[in-house]
Specification:
- It comes from Kitasatospora albolonga.
- This is NDP-hexose 2,3-dehydratase.
- The chain contains 10 helices and 25 strands.
- The protein is of the alpha+beta class.
- The chain has a domain of 153 residues: EvaA sugar 2,3-dehydratase subunit (Nucleoside Triphosphate Pyrophosphohydrolase).
- A hairpin with a 6-residue loop joins strand 3 and strand 4.
- The radius of gyration is 22 Å and the shape is globular.
């Protein structure tokens, strides 16, 4: 007599949100390192290796060259990334058309966090990783942060530590796994695989890695330039489900609004030779805009004793000015809401992704009359700092951007500043709705994911 085999399993792990919440509640000391000892640990890791970054002329780049026919800047291997031109048209009219350099990196990288329970509490294996574009060089990164070119060892350097946990993970050990975009203003259709994988294996200790709870990471997110962008985007994907009594816009209505925003915007992009991009010039040290705004492409020589390759040269994109990324917040019937913006960026796979209320580099708009400046930008710039529920300075991706930093804010508002019925392209959503959307690729942009990581780690409570 045969016995029926159960094939079905629960669609979701009902215990996982509670396990993550327990980890977020542990803020002062984990299984390995006290939070107040972290600064000394990071400083010791900085002293343990030699790190140096020097600006160089393009002619000093090793393995990189400007193509004679197109002017595109690429590596001789054909891997890593290429800086080329992009022609963009958004809607109608002259203001909706421009040309710019852009980073094209078609390969999908892995950003992976390894999780393990110690004494019944989930911890996450974090790495002290040097990135040449970070102003302070060494920051806290995920367990694995690697392009395909890196983990397949195109550079012929050392292998990526712990990569085997993410290339072929056991399906039942995966806590989160989603393709996410990076900066659509600077990358062309770039995606990374954001992963959280749990293990019960004994992980050999290494001096550049430490186990931290979600709560400890949340505490560190209050410090400027400590937790890097790649760690923040993965942390945002943690499947935390905050209890919410409801929302101004039910989920189906929210998804319909997103579909409508994607449909009403027409974005046409066309890769073009870098040498033909209008309004940009190249000299020995930079590819820059003639007005001195936006960003420039530069070259650096790097020395990093803790990396898979200890010396190399590469191009980097350097923004002109400090970024500002802020969610305006209000409570409706006791439920916190965030004012999301359907952002159009040339490099997105789809026409829009949800970003913070304000996501700009203010210096790029300083020359405009107040009526022509983006909505809510001046409100945040002129606000009393005492109104911010959170404020910190964080670096953007240090492997491709030089000195790219942004102020990240949550700011409470009233009806007179952020109305119940906001301007077109904006919608009030709950943190839970944002967390649900981020479990699917290309709905929430990387700046909004940084702000969401503050909620998933408990760094901010709205």
């Amino acid at each position: 007599m045969s016995t029926a085999v159960r094939l079905l399993r629960p669609r979701t792990d009902p215990d996982l949100p509670a396990r993550l919440a327990r980890s977020a509640a542990v803020r002062e000391a984990g299984a390995q390192l006290r939070t107040d000892a972290f600064g000394a640990w990071l400083a010791e890791r900085r002293r343990a290796h030699r790190f140096a970054v020097e600006r160089i002329p393009f002619t000093a780049l090793d393995g990189w060259r400007f193509d004679g026919a197109t002017g595109d800047l690429s590596h001789r291997s054909g891997r890593f990334f290429t800086v080329r031109g992009l022609r963009v048209r958004v809607g109608e009219g002259p203001s909706g058309e421009w040309e710019q350099p852009v980073i094209e990196q078609p390969e999908v990288g892995i950003l992976g966090l390894l999780a393990k329970e110690f004494d019944g509490v989930l911890h996450f294996l974090m790495q002290a990783k040097m990135e040449p574009g970070n102003r302070n060089l060494l920051q806290l990164s995920p367990t694995v942060q690697a392009t395909r070119s890196n983990y397949t060892r195109v550079h012929r350097g050392a292998g990526v530590r712990h990569i085997e946990q993410f290339v072929r993970p056991e399906p039942h050990r995966v806590l989160a796994d989603v393709l996410q975009s990076e900066q659509g203003s600077w990358f062309y259709r770039k995606s990374n695989r954001n992963m959280i994988v749990e293990t019960t294996d004994d992980i050999p200790p290494h001096e550049d890695f430490c186990w931290l709870t979600l709560g400890q990471i949340g505490e560190l997110l209050h410090r400027d330039n400590v937790v890097n962008m790649d760690a923040r985007t993965v942390l945002a994907c943690a499947p935390v489900t905050p209890p919410e009594a409801g929302a101004l816009h039910p989920d189906t209505e929210l998804l319909s609004w997103i579909s409508g925003e994607r449909s009403r915007h027409e974005v046409r992009t066309e890769p073009m030779p870098l040498k033909d991009v209008r309004g940009w010039v190249r000299d020995d040290h930079a590819v820059r805009h003639t007005d001195g705004r936006y960003f420039q492409v530069v070259a650096v020589s790097v020395e990093a004793g803790s990396r898979e390759v200890s010396r190399w040269t590469q191009p980097l994109l350097e923004p002109r000015g400090l970024g500002l990324n802020a969610f305006l917040t209000r409570s409706f019937d006791g439920v916190p809401h965030l004012l999301a913006h359907a952002r159009v960026e040339a490099g997105f796979l789809d026409t829009i992704e949800l970003g913070p209320t304000v996501q700009y580099t203010p210096d790029n708009y300083a020359h405009l009359a107040p009526r022509d400046r983006p909505p809510f930008l001046d409100l945040v710039l002129r606000a009393d700092p005492g109104r911010f529920r959170y404020a910190a300075l964080h670096s953007e991706e240090g492997g491709r951007f030089l000195n790219a930093e942004s102020r990240y804010l949550f700011m409470e508002c009233g009806e007179d500043e952020a109305p119940l019925r906001p301007p077109p392209g904006y919608l009030w959503i709950t943190p839970g709705q944002l967390g649900s959307l981020v479990r699917h690729g290309h709905y929430v942009d990387v700046e909004a994911r940084t702000l969401l990581s503050l909620l998933t780690t408990g760094a901010v409570t709205l």
